[in-house]
Design a protein that fits this description.
Distance between the termini: 33 Å
CATH superfamily of the largest domain: tm_1862 like domain
Number of helices: 12
Number of strands: 20
CATH topology of the largest domain: pyruvate-formate lyase- activating enzyme
Bound molecules: iron/sulfur cluster
CATH class of the largest domain: Alpha Beta
Number of domains: 3
Strand order of the largest sheet: 2-1-3-4-5
């Protein structure tokens, strides 16, 4: 994704074209770099041609993502020539310089200072930075009405298919006071929905032994439930991503039932068969997830549960896969994503010695999985017909606006199409009577503004 152009009437300001690839965590890194650049007076441009330099924030999670990143670097070199590469792929600079020896500088993930140093060398900043061009909440790449809020970096888990801990290091939690101050600025700037992200949100604060820090006139611990409660006080939507089903997650469900935070949990489970989970070394794999889900639904009946799964992991047998399908049926999750296993270079899972699942078997399992889940998701969506839902508007339209209910995260879930007797504004939250459901989306009419 390329960032929107900003306007400046000073033609002398150096121009930077920025390409941000990868997950929401990488997007937050991009936002931090761009905020710093704008604070120093740099302009952003939509075009590589005519810019003083290009920054490419890469994703190195899967081989397909690496290929996309390399493609973006190649394009930037061709169109501009002065290219700074950062992000996950920057952790293995030799791969980039082998493909593109002319790259100006390569830095790893979260190395904001190194990126800034490289930018200063490539195109020195103006003498007189217009600090006042930077809004207090920083520059956001997401639409103004929602923003990602990163509460920690890195990860203490060692899932065998994942190289993120190698790239980003162990868990480093931000002090709760810092997180809350950022959230406060975002809310004051008009953000209506915060998407809390990290690699393992439920592990927040373990590295700092849940140390408390000052927020307004009290102390708040760096702990999942405490930060959820404090964020809930801003009176805007707060959505939790990347939560593993540890027992202490139960403490957050009452906040969802009371609508302090959204009744929504994004919980990447990846599999259900014990042998596969063991080989994956998944966090919270021993937890009785089905029982936990049942309890959550008792505590908060309209909770939305989203998860992602991997099929075709090395050693996955037909019996393991059938167990996953059976689990899926019992869990009856609202939203599910499924990936075919890809052997990421450097991942431990490549050396487990387990039987490699042939591509055609992976493909077949993926289709069977998606068909099974589609029936479940459609059934769960249909239950909403006739109900009234709060919907946040993402795109205005002459007669029908596109939005999301509390059950839908941006980019990954479905939409609600809202007919309205008056034009709706982006970021507005309306009460919508749901009249129809299709496979992924809901349709209804605004009945309260
Ligand atoms: S929890 Fe597992 S998959 Fe997620 S970042 Fe950590 S090691 Fe990777």
């Amino acid at each position: 994704m390329q960032v929107p152009e900003t306007k400046s009437d000073d033609k002398a300001a150096p121009k930077v074209s920025f390409v941000s690839l990868g997950c929401p965590k990488a997007l937050v890194d991009s936002e931090r770099i761009i905020t710093r650049l704008r604070a120093e007076g740099y302009e952003l441009s939509r075009e590589h041609v005519g810019s003083d330099l290009v920054i490419v924030n890469t994703c190195g999670f899967l081989d397909s993502a690496k290929a996309e990143s390399l493609g973006a670097i190649g394009k930037a070199l061709k169109e501009n020539g002065k290219v700074i590469v950062t992000g996950c792929m920057g952790a293995e600079p030799e791969n980039i310089s082998a493909a593109y020896p002319d790259v100006f500088a390569i830095t790893g993930p979260q190395q904001y200072e190194s990126v800034l140093d490289a930018v200063h060398r490539a195109a020195p900043p103006r003498h007189d930075p217009f600090i006042d061009l930077v809004p207090p909440e920083g520059i956001k790449l997401t639409p103004r009405h929602y923003a990602y809020l990163k509460i920690s970096e890195g990860c203490n888990n060692r899932c065998t298919f994942c190289i993120i801990p190698k790239l980003r290091g162990d868990l480093v939690s931000r002090p709760a006071g810092d997180v809350l101050r950022e959230a406060e600025k975002l809310a004051a700037a008009g953000v209506k929905e915060l998407l809390v992200i990290s690699q393992d949100t439920s592990a927040y604060g373990i590295d700092v032994k849940y140390a408390a820090s000052k927020w307004r006139n009290k102390e708040v611990r760096a702990k999942f439930v405490d930060i959820a409660e404090a964020l809930g006080e801003f009176g805007i939507w707060v959505r939790m991503h990347y939560v593993y089903p540890y027992p202490h997650v139960d403490d957050v469900i009452p906040l969802m039932a009371d609508r302090k935070i959204l009744p929504y949990l994004d919980m990447p489970l990846q599999h259900a068969a014990p042998d596969v989970l063991k080989r994956m070394k998944r966090p919270a794999a021993q937890e009785k997830t089905l029982a936990r889900i049942e309890r959550w639904r008792e505590m908060c009946p309209d909770i939305t549960l989203r998860s992602t799964f991997i099929v075709g992991f090395p050693g996955e047998t037909e019996a393991d896969f059938n167990l996953l399908l059976q689990w899926l049926d019992e869990a009856s999750l609202d939203r599910v994503g499924c990936f075919k296993y890809e052997p990421v270079r450097g991942a431990v899972s490549n050396d487990l010695g387990a039987a490699v699942v042939p591509d055609e078997v992976k493909e077949d399992r993926w289709h069977r999985f998606m068909q099974a889940q589609q029936k479940i998701s459609t059934r769960r969506l249909k239950r909403k017909v006739g109900t009234r839902q709060q919907v946040i508007i993402d795109e205005a339209g002459p007669s029908v606006a596109k939005g999301r209910s509390m059950a839908d995260a941006p980019e990954i879930d479905g939409a609600v199409y809202v007919a309205s007797r008056r034009p709706m504004r982006v970021g507005e939250i309306a009460t919508v009577k749901i009249e129809r459901a299709d496979e992924y989306d809901l349709h209804g009419t605004a009945v309260g503004y």
